[in-house]
């Protein structure tokens, strides 16, 4: 055989190696099937997580709505004994002033306890306390024998509810010297 007698087609066919796709065909098909299964699995997990997040958001919104609707329930419940005491005092026809005063003091204690249980605390700064514009409202400035800009007297108590000022204390403040 003469090497020059070969046609270019014969040389090309002989020099071409087998196609890698043909050898790797089953491996790619397996990989594709695995990836499709994994995609289905991840898609399912995503949809479940999305649904769970939506359910959690919906439950949180429902709980917030309930909390707003019934926020005063505990406070109202703690005030009911105060109302009962006042009604009982009114029902007594021939009460002496001493009995009425004793009942008023007892009712005031009940009210104070109810407020404290619900974190409503009085602001009543003692004389000499530094004036705090966040908790006090100065009604007047008076000359006094104490440090300037300090509380001289409390005209009306203020109140905090859970660390927030509900009403500032009305105070007189010492004038600068």
Poorly predicted spans: none
Number of E-state strands: 6
Strand content: 15-25%
- The helix-strand sequence is HHHHEEEEEE
Widest beta sheet: strand line-up: 1-4-5
- What is the global morphology? elongated
Number of helices: 4
Secondary structural class: alpha+beta
Describe this structure in words.
This protein is α+β, with helices and mostly antiparallel strands and 177 residues long. The chain is 55% helix and 18% strand. The chain is built from 4 helices and 6 strands; from the N terminus they run ααααββββββ. Strands 1-4-5 form a 3-stranded antiparallel beta sheet. A hairpin with a 2-residue loop joins strand 4 and strand 5 (164-167). The longest helix is centred in the N-terminal third of the chain and has 50 residues, at 20-69. The chain is elongated and about 100 Å long. The mean pLDDT is 87.
Tell me the layout of helices and strands.
Elements: H1 8-15, H2 20-69, H3 73-91, H4 97-117, E1 120-123, E2 136-142, E3 151-156, E4 158-161, E5 164-167, E6 169-174
Parallel strand pairs: 2-6
Antiparallel strand pairs: 1-4, 3-6, 4-5
Helix pairs in contact: 3-4
């Amino acid at each position: 055989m003469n090497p020059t007698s070969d046609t270019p087609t014969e040389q090309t066919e002989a020099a071409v190696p087998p196609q890698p796709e043909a050898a790797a065909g089953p491996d790619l098909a397996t990989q594709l099937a695995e990836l499709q299964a994994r995609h289905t699995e991840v898609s399912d997990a995503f949809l479940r997580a999305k649904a769970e997040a939506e359910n959690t958001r919906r439950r949180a919104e429902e709980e917030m709505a309930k909390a707003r609707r019934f926020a005063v329930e505990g406070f109202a419940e703690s005030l009911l004994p105060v109302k009962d005491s006042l009604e009982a005092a009114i029902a007594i026809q021939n009460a002496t002033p001493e009995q009425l005063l004793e009942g008023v003091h007892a009712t005031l204690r009940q009210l104070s306890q109810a407020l404290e249980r619900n974190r409503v605390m009085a602001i009543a700064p003692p004389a000499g306390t530094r004036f705090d514009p966040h908790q006090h409202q100065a009604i007047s400035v008076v000359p006094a024998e104490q440090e300037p800009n300090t509380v001289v007297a409390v005209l009306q108590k203020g109140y905090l509810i859970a660390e927030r000022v509900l009403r500032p204390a009305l105070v007189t403040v010492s004038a600068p010297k």
